[in-house]
Amino acid sequence: MIPFYPIFWVLLKLKKFKTVLALENFWTRIFLPLAGIFTTIQQKHDFPKAPFIICPNHSSYFDIFASLRVMPRFYSFLGKAELQHWPIFNIFFNSGMNILVNRENKFGAAQAFKKSLKAIDDGKSLIIFPEAGIHSEAPKLLPFKDGAFALAIKKQIPIQPVTFLDNYKILKTGGFFKSRALPGECRVIFHKPIETKGLTQADLVNLRQQVFGIIQKPLL
User: Fold this and answer.
1) Residue 53: its H or E element
2) Where are the domains of the chain?
3) Is residue 184 classed as helix, strand or coil in its secondary structure?
4) How confident is residue 119, by pLDDT bands cut at 50, 70 and 90?
5) 3-class DSSP assignment, residue 88
6) Number of Cβ atoms within 10 Å of the Cβ of 33
């Protein structure tokens, strides 16, 4: 990361977010093979027309790097508020490129929802991990939160379910510099997008359960 850091810093200051995403993708193309990690897309459907909501399972901090490698651009991450304090990586969230959400604070959650609506209006897709955390027994899934599905229904945009099959083995959960990391294959499944046109908030629970089942099935 260090050789690229000054370039990222300048581009983020200039708000050149599309260029940053392209550079991040290029960076992962170098970094992942050097680390012995090779991505394989096992299944892929045509992505819907942007904007749309991308919903991957969250089994490891490596999910972020895998997303930078395989996800369609132009998008923003929704990340937990603590990321603004992470060394090196915090510039990607403090710059306005991505959206921070404080789920412990109703006002903070409402502000993140508002920013997400604005990003969608600007044509950005959003990557939202609907579990809002990593299960201690990953790849087992945590219950999904409502936010991603409420956004998709409100804006009547598709949801793109994604399953990461191996990330929990590549980088285990645990404390900073306390997690076991291994090389290996990073297999990705892009499921068929789910349309939300015509759905209302009354359909939210069914939509959430449908996406949960789709993402979980390959893990079982």
Assistant:
1) strand 53-56
2) 2-219
3) strand
4) very high
5) coil
6) 12
Residues in the chain: 220
Contacts of 184 by beta carbon, 8 Å cutoff, 6+ apart:
36, 37, 166, 169, 170
Burial class of residue 86 (count of CB atoms within 10 Å of its CB; 0-12, 13-18, 19+): middle
Instruction: Look at domain 2-219 and name its CATH class.
Output: alpha beta
* pLDDT over 90, % of the chain: 74
Query: How far apart (Å, rounded) are the C-alpha atoms in residues 107 and 110?
Result: 5
Confidence band, pLDDT 50/70/90 cuts, at residue 175: low
- C-alpha 35/C-alpha 184 separation (Å) is 9
pLDDT above 70: residue 116: yes
Would the pTM count as exceeding 0.90?
Answer: yes
